[in-house]
Structure formats: structure tokens, C-alpha cells
């Protein structure tokens, strides 16, 4: 037996926006990956460390699945989410949608997937499933992981059943676009200002611009934080640039989202925010390079330089988000671009 939906299996750079793109294109709503990321208010920052962690983690986006919830709310999409502790019911939830001709999103731990190149546990990984047979499930993942891929049903079951940080209970989800396709143009400013407000006023010092400032102080100690700097620092740098972030810890995606918005709305605040995030993206890539070089060489001076750049980044991104937060208080002129309903 085999059930495979005829869909556009284009992958992208980030897992959640890749899956969202597959689900929405199937219903006739084709948005760029930066636009999906930006409308989902996906940009953030977290410095995450703990007693049970082998090494600190720098995150550049909101929590897994928050982007999907944000996007559904912003565009007025119907979001069906199903979770269960039962592997049998979880499989039935996924296959029921596919059997009706609809791809389904799955949140799982990428470690268990047959095709995944990097065997690191990540319970917030999201894929789109578009088919299955007696042995394999057919998925769409990022370009880096192969785009249209397959994995054994057993590996998929283990990935969905995994427990730990950022995991969900066999979460599956589907999106329904309303009869009249939503106009992304009208949602741009609310999405940007919501993202800016959260970034500017984080509840704890590990998040937003305060988190970047904190990272600038703590990154200088990273050679003493691990007994294997040659492994841990280059891996941290790799995750920042190649770990499904689109480069520069998601700042490239947000830069490109803002650039796309400037083609739609005539706003000086928007243009300034784009310029500042273009600068931030370049600095983040340099921070990743310095962290990787510090691990390879054992020279702490590279971490001192990375710390100084992070202090600069805290100021640059704080300024950018302050400017972007003012979008809600001006009336930018629509000049071209995204179609209305």
C-alpha cells in the first residue's frame, strides 16, 4: 500500500518555514521563506545554559512551533494541532490527513531520522509528511538535509516519541487557508512590531537584546566552560551558520524579510531597520567565525573579539528594533508587491 500526495517538495533553509511552505503552497498560498519567517515573528535570541547541558546554546528564533502559531494567527489560518501519548493514535492522526490528500506537519527529534546528517538530539525539528507506504514515510525537510527525503516508519516513530528539551507529544498539525486568500501586506506591520516589542522587553536577561549583551560577557569564558573546546566551540559556530538558521543565526532571513517588505511599503523606519539588520547579519557571521577559530586554536583572544562584537550587536539590534517598533505609529505608503485577496 502506498499513499503519496502530489505536492511541491521544495525545501528551504529552516525546518519550520520549510514545512509551512509545503503546507501552504498545497493550498495555493506561496510565500517566500523570509516572508513566512517574518510574518511568524520568528526572530529572537536566547542564551541557554544549565547544569545538565554540556555546553551553552545560542538560539536566534522563538521557541519551536511558536512561529507556526504566530503565522496562523496573523494570516487568519485555521490551525489544527493534535498531540497524544499514544504512538498508534499519533500515526492515525498523520495518515488520516494524508489519506484525504493533505500534507501534515510533524514535530520530532531529528536525531532518529535515517537521512539526518548530524546526529544531535533536537526535539524541536519540524518536517512536512506527504506520503507513506508499508516501510517508509516520505517527508520534506530543509535543502541541507535533502529536501524530499524518506525515513523508515520505525525511525519516524522513535523520532516522534522522543522526550526531552523542546519535544512535543507526537505533535502533528495542519493548516487550512480560508476561502479568500489572506493578504500578507496588511499583516506586515503588526508582525514586525510584535517581534520588536518582545525583543525590546524580554522577561529575563537571557532573552532579546539583553541576552545578546549577556552572551558577550559569557562567551569570553567558553574555553574554560568545556573539556573539549576543539569539539564544542566549532560545533556551536556551525549551528549558528549551518544549523538550519539560514546563516547569521537567522539574521539573514530577517534581513531578507525586511528587504521584501521595503518593496511593498514605503517607510523610512522600515528601510533603517533593514540597513541595521544587514549590518547585524554580517557581524553574526563574524562572531561564529571567531568562536570556531577559538576552539580550533585554543586562543582566548578570539573569544574576547567575539564578546566585543556581541556587545556591538546588542546595541545594533536594540536600535533596529526600536526603529521598527515605531512602524505602528506611522502610515507607510503601499507602493507595490504582494497581491490583495
From TrEMBL:
Give the originating organism.
Answer: Streptomyces lavendofoliae
Protein name as catalogued:
Lantibiotic ABC transporter
The UniProt record lists the DUF4872 domain at 154-324
Domain (Butirosin biosynthesis protein H N-terminal): residue spans on this chain: 14-142
Amino acid at each position: 500500500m502506498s499513499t503519496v500526495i502530489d505536492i511541491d517538495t521544495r525545501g528551504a533553509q529552516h525546518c519550520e518555514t520549510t514545512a509551512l511552505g509545503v503546507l501552504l503552497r498545497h493550498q495555493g498560498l506561496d510565500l517566500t521563506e523570509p516572508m513566512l519567517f517574518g510574518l511568524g515573528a520568528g526572530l529572537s535570541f536566547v542564551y541557554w545554559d544549565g547544569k545538565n547541558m554540556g555546553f551553552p546554546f545560542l538560539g536566534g528564533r522563538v521557541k519551536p512551533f511558536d512561529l507556526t502559531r504566530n503565522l496562523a494567527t496573523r494570516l487568519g489560518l485555521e490551525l489544527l494541532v493534535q498531540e497524544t501519548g499514544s504512538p498508534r493514535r499519533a500515526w492515525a492522526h498523520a495518515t488520516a490527513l494524508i489519506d484525504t490528500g493533505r500534507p501534515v506537519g510533524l514535530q520530532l527529534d531529528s536525531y532518529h531520522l535515517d537521512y539526518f546528517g548530524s546526529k544531535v538530539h533536537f526535539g524541536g525539528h519540524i518536517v512536512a509528511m506527504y506520503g507513506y507506504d508499508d516501510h517508509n514515510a516520505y517527508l520534506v525537510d530543509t535543502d541541507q538535509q535533502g529536501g524530499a527525503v524518506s525515513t523508515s516508519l520505525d525511525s519516524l516513530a522513535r523520532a516522534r516519541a522522543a522526550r526531552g528539551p523542546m519535544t512535543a507529544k507526537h505533535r502533528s498539525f495542519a493548516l487550512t487557508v480560508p476561502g479568500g486568500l489572506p493578504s500578507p501586506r496588511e499583516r506586515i506591520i503588526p508582525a514586525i512590531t510584535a517581534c520588536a516589542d518582545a525583543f525590546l522587553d524580554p522577561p529575563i536577561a537571557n532573552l532579546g537584546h539583553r541576552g545578546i549583551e549577556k552572551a558577550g560577557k559569557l562567551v569570553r569564558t567558553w574555553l574554560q566552560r568545556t573539556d573539549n573546546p576543539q569539539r564544542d566551540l566549532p560545533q556551536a559556530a556551525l549551528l549558528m551558520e549551518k544549523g538550519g538558521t539560514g546563516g547569521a543565526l537567522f539574521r539573514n532571513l530577517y534581513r531578507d524579510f525586511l528587504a521584501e517588505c521595503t518593496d511593498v511599503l514605503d517607510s523610512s523606519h522600515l528601510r533603517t531597520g533593514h540597513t541595521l539588520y544587514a549590518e547585524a547579519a554580517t557581524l553574526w557571521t563574524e562572531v561564529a567565525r571567531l568562536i570556531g577559530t577559538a576552539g580550533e586554536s585554543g586562543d582566548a583572544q578570539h573569544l574576547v573579539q567575539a564578546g566585543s562584537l556581541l556587545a556591538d550587536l546588542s546595541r545594533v539590534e536594540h536600535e533596529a528594533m526600536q526603529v521598527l517598533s515605531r512602524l505602528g505609529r506611522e502610515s507607510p505608503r503601499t507602493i507595490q508587491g504582494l497581491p490583495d485577496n
